[in-house]
Design brief:
Oligomer: single chain
CATH class of the largest domain: Alpha Beta
Number of domains: 2
Structural class: alpha/beta
Number of helices: 12
Distance between the termini: 52 Å
CATH architecture of the largest domain: 3-Layer(aba) Sandwich
Shape: globular
CATH topology of the largest domain: Rossmann fold
Strand content: 15-25%
CATH superfamily of the largest domain: Thiamin diphosphate (ThDP)-binding fold, Pyr/PP domains
Helix content: 25-40%
Order of helices and strands: EHEHEHEHHEHEHEEEEHEEHEHEHH
Amino acid sequence: MPEETISKDNPLTDTGAGAPGRQMNMIEAINDALDIMMARDPDIVILGEDVGYFGGVFRATAGLQKKFGRNRVFDAPINECGIIGAAVGMAAYGLRPVPEIQFADYIYPGLDQLVSEAARMRYRSAGEFTSPITIRSPFGGGIFGGQTHSQSPEAMFTHVAGLKTIIPATPHDAKGLLIAAIEDNDPVMFFEPKRIYNGPFGGDYDKPSRTWKGHPGGEVPEGYYKIPLGKARIVREGEALTVLCYGTMVHVAEAVLADKGVDAEIIDLRSLVPLDIETVEKSVQKTGKCLVIHEATRTSGFGAELVTLVQERCFYHLEAPVERVTGFDTPYPHSLEWAYFPGPVRIGEAVDRLMKD
């Protein structure tokens, strides 16, 4: 579609509806979003470990340095504190940096820059400065990365006022949400579930495998489009049960619920902060039952916030206690990775309890 058709002023750009598309996996969709935004805005820069010549450990930035030059796509030392600190300064100066933290597990040395600087910049300067940073980072398990490459720390960032936290589950959403995040004037944590980087896993959602089954990903509109932050996606409608999930767990929930034949409404939150509580509330009031699924550890996970919100807003509509299926309160187990994931056994047991009441 011509450039004048795909533009910020075209209502089609909200979702990409009506635009021609092609099959992409999530890595390709992220790369496409970065390519499009860098071509549109010379103030966008990418920095991080191995993001330049090598194109990132997962190849999400492949080809971008060659196309846009070393001044806009450049490698950084193994220093997450320095990567995020530099991005904060760039943003205050007027740039729109998109730093990559190679694995979410490595982000903690840069936590002070995120919490004390980026998240507070707009407020502490009375709006004189903003912090339009999009921190991209692969998170979660599924690649046999062990406890230093597989954590899901999203709940930690949802607690920080001033940060937005986004987690896509499809290539289409990854591209549209990333474009919206880059254009946002506040700092955005953009967590990418690496278990589904290269496409859905078909029927192997309950088995460890180093190969990916199923189609390459999904149809992604070409050109510019964005998906507003803070809007959930109803994956499938249902009347008997509301399932709240995000990232990889969207695909796991779909597979398990299809196997069990339950008329469940599956909601892909996409955005944890801001949260589309209206869609959640409307669904739970309709079904009367709610199941929350996430890969992160249980205690103080984002599921606890979801359970509380559902109880506060939908108490008189609930027909059973809200259920949670999560990771365990342990360091991430390398050899027992697939036992750690919420899967068909534990999700199935929770569904059975809910449907029995």
